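Standup notes, structure subgroup. Blocker cleared on the phenylalanine input:
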Amino acid sequence: MTAERWSSRVGFLLATVGAAVGLGNIWRFSSVLGANGGGAYLVPYLLAAFALAVPLLVLELAVGRTLRTDVVSAFSSVDRSYTAFGWLVVGGVLLILSYYLVLTGWVLGFLISWLVGSQTPFSTFTSGWLPVGYFVVVTILTGGIVSRGVRGGIERMAKVVMPTVFALLVLLALYAVTFPGWGEAVTFLFTPDLSVLAEPGVWSAAVGQVFFSLSVGQGIMLTYGSYTDEGMDFFRSSLLITVADIAAALLAGLVIFPIVFSFGLEPTLGTELAFTTLPTAFVSMAVGRVVAVAFFGLLFFAALSSAVSLLEVGVAAATTWTRIDRMRATALLTAGVFVAGIPSALSYSSVRLLVAGRPVLDIVDESVGTYALPVSGFLIAVVFVWAADFEAVHEELGRLYPLVKYVIPPVLALVTLARALGVARPAWRLLIDQPRDGLLGVVVAGLILSLLVALGWLLRSKLSDAARRCGRQPR
Ligand code: PHE
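Run returned:
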């Protein structure tokens, strides 16, 4: 049972938008959009956002507020045997955090190098020790914010960081209007092509991008929901969070694509986009340094508030389960995440930590980054709707209830399996456009199948329990 609360609705919204808007909106959105043919991709993207992500957001927030607890306790309060699923979700989140912080460190490194005017090429930057140093700095910063608590740390940070992110995005997008490639960029971004809707690859990329970008289905929104007051309308809040998240992504597109087209660069870029392609353009711009500082500054702020939300999921679980205080729990988890992130941090550095010829960071991204998201989302949707049916949650979902019950679990299972079996394009990862490992796919597909079987078996034996519990709100 948690006692902490957001100070206001605005504080809650800024924190949740902060959790959602991150590297995914600014860097990944443009990469995925570029790789999937621009505006063609927008239709499945918007559909996935409003039909799938919004209902799941409402579910998570409502479960958080109904149970007023962390994600592990939430699972275990449905049934003790589900506790392990809760830890699985937390484990996935912390592993994502371990390499998300490495990437956030790169962003901070680029921000500082443009600030001091000594920008180095990406390959030179990553091959030295500096990225490891920046990884340490951002890890300590994230831990420092979370250790100060919900109001004093997370909400206070969000109130500074999020308005800055949006202000910088709007200013940069306005500046981008003056670029010769602006018209071409707008056409590229907003010309829908309904024929791609028949392509499963585009759908899986869109669903993947939406879930990644909104941080939904990871227990983050459940945790943040547990700090809200009664009476807050989660449907309206979820719409607002989704619209803000999409707006951030589109604004970022309206900054990035005019630059890409005006400087004759390639729109179909992957990881390279933020760190190699755009800097090429910044160098030749009149006020390139200012633009670069604004761009990396907003990217850093956006990433930091997402990293904080990832850590908070673990800290909330640790403080409830071990009864150690927030300060200690944060210190311990931050240290753990740091250790887990060292191989990723070293993979591009001079140590060149490779496994099977690939940087560890890419491997973690391909495994955890790819599968933790849909699997966690699936577990949350199934356990909190099929196994437990809390009246308050049901009421909050209203007409969205059938979507969460009948549409979201099969879609998540399908997209995950399709991805694992290699029939869909990379859908969930941050570093897209890398060759994938066939064997890994088979192993993961096997693991997911076993998980589904285990879950089905557990659910079967608990069905009668669940039916009785229906309508009651367990503590
Ligand atoms: N949503 C965040 C982003 O867009 C990152 C994130 C992904 C957070 C997955 C949690 C889970 O960058």
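Discussed briefly. The domain at 9-352 is CATH 1.10.4160.10 (Hydantoin permease).
Next: hand off to the docking folks.
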